[in-house]
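Fold it.
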Amino acid sequence: MGDRPVLIIDGLNVFTRHFVANPAMSDKGYPIGALVGFLKGLRLLSEKVLPSQVIVVWEGGGSARRRAIYPDYKQGRRPARLNRFYDDIPDTYQNRDSQLQLIIETLKHVPVVQMYVADCEADDVLGYLVSHRLKTQKCVMVSSDKDLYQLVDARTIQWSPGQKIFVTPAVILEKFGIHPNNFCAARCFVGDPSDGLPGVKGAGFKTLAKRFEELRGRETVSVEDIIQRASKLSEDHNLQVYNNIVESADIARRNWKLMFLGVSNLSGTQIQKIDGVLNTFVPSRNKIALMRILLREGVQNFDVDSYYMAMNTVQS
């Protein structure tokens, strides 16, 4: 496959962005912004990075292993809300599910690997792909999720649809003062409100980068390293954050089990499923079938030829 990267898309993350923001309507009078936006975005990215392979990873219903560790993990998340107004508000949930199914259906007619692994998170699948299965290949992950920053290195970068930039180690280091190798460890103290994970009081990224300069380096710094360092520093410095880290050490240790994208949150069966999908994938290139789906759904003003040509260059 040469130097052409593998494009790995966090399917639900990208879908949700378009579902919320894109106001496109079908000729039949229902919202199709997620479908059109997803396909257009895929075309543009394929033209930009010229991937050797495209993999779309769909959410598998959440991680049972994480919920066993912390029952409140990702509880109470607010559903995606449309940032626009209608005279007649559509059935948001039904339309969302319908558009998801349409994307899955249309992607079957272009050379795109679709992956769904039950009872695990898409992030874990991405982590396994870039760190194990594709560890010798260049990869471009597509997601706005900062959970994936821990996977960024010289070989793997992330395209952020929201920021519209490629997130590289240099970008992360400049913005947070933390090297990607240590980003997950730092987040264990910062916490993640969107996932319902509290952090350590006063331990933001800026504070951690300032008080623990070793986080800027390539050498891996563990959660335990930070706890031990804070314990020693608290003896000589009257800074509350050091005491907070020591007192809340168990929170950081628990967060590591929840945040780290290693194989520990995947079962052997789930890994076999991932490998099996890649090993047995047979690419399809069926422009007529794709056009029939879009015609059936009343999708107009979509350049099928440009989309199909862009996807046809994928080497899968």
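The first strand starts at residue 6 and ends at 10.
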